[in-house]
Amino acid sequence: MDGDQLAQFLRARRAAVRPGEAAGGVRRVSGLRREEVAERAGISPDYYTRLEQNRTSRPSAQVVAALATALAMTEPQRAHLHRLTGHQVQPSPPQVPQADPALLRVLEQLTSTAAHIMTDLGETLAQNRLSVALFGDASLYTGASRSTYYRWFTDPAAREVFAKETRDRETRARVADLRATWVRRSDAAARELVELLRRESGEFEDLWAAHEVSARFTERKRIIGPTGPLELYAQFLSAGSPHQVLVVFTPVTGTDAAERLARIDELPDPAERSPGTREGGPRHP
User: Fold this and answer.
1) What does pTM read for this prediction?
2) I need a labelling partner for 164 at 20 to 30 A (CA). Which of 41, 205, 219, 285 fits?
C-alpha cells in the first residue's frame, strides 16, 4: 500500500465532493467533513482520520469499496483507490440501466445519422429517430429479448437488417465482444446472459468455445434500410461509464449512404407507420 499517496488522494477527494453530494442538504462549506465520510462509509471517524494521516495499516477491500462510494468516486477514481491500497480493482456494480447523461447529450445532437445508446450487454437505452427507422423501437422488447446478443442467436429475424454476406462476420464479432464484456464485468448479469445463450443456441455455444476476444470500436456494416442497402461505419463511443456505449452509424465516403439516410429522414415518423410494413415494427440494432 502507498500510504502517503492514499492519504493525499482521500483528502483531495473529500475536499472535491460537491455540496449537493453531501448528506444533510444545503451546506455553507464545500467538501465533506471527516466525520461525514466515516459515517457514510460505515467506519469510525478515528480510523478514517488515521487513514488520511497515514497512521494505520491497509484497509480491507470492503472498506475501500465503501470509501469509494462515500466519496462519490468515478470508475477511474475507484480503480485508482483500489490500486493505492494494494487490492484488485473491483468495478462498481452496474445500477438499473439508464442512459448516461453525457452520452444522451451527444445523442440529442445527432439528427442526420442513426445513433443509439446501449449497455455492454446489448440493451438499448435510447435511440434517435433514424435509429428507430433503421432498427425499430427497441423499447418494445422485454426480458432477455432486450439484449441484442440474445435476439441475434434466438430470433432469425434479428439478422435481416444486415446484408446476408456480412452476417457470419457480424456473428463472430458479437461473440468475441460479449466475451470481452463477460471477462471485464465478471458479474451475475453477464454470466446469466452467457449461460442462457449457451443453453438456447448451439451456434453460440460452438463460437463461445473458440475463446475469441475483441472490442468493437469502428466497424464497416452493410445495413438493409427502408430505402435500400446502406454502407455505414459503426463507431462505439464511451464517456466515463464502462457499461454503456453510444453507437453512431456514419455514411461510408464514396457511397450513397448519406443520400439514403436523408431519404429515410423524409419518411413518416416510425411510430406512425403500420406494424408489419418494411419500415415499421421492431427490428434489431
Assistant:
1) 0.63
2) 205
Helix (H, G, I), strand (E, B) or coil at 124: strand
CB 162 within 8 A of CB 223: yes
Q: Is residue 93 part of a domain?
A: no
Instruction: Pull the grid cell for residue 1.
Output: 500500500
> What would the grid cell of residue 134 be?
433503421
CATH number of the domain where residue 136 is located:
3.30.450
- Quick check: is 259 in a domain? yes
Rounded CA gap, 231 and 164, in Å? Answer: 13
Greatest distance between any 2 Cα atoms in the chain = 70
Q: Rounded CA gap, 47 and 195, in Å?
A: 43
For the stretch 97-129, pLDDT in tens is 688 888 999 999 999 999 999 999 999 999 999
φ/ψ (deg, to 5) at 221? -130, 150
DSSP state of 210: T
Strand partners, 49: none
pLDDT for position 93:
53
3-state class of 212 per DSSP? Answer: coil
Beta strands in 122-266 (DSSP E): 124-127, 218-225, 228-237, 244-251
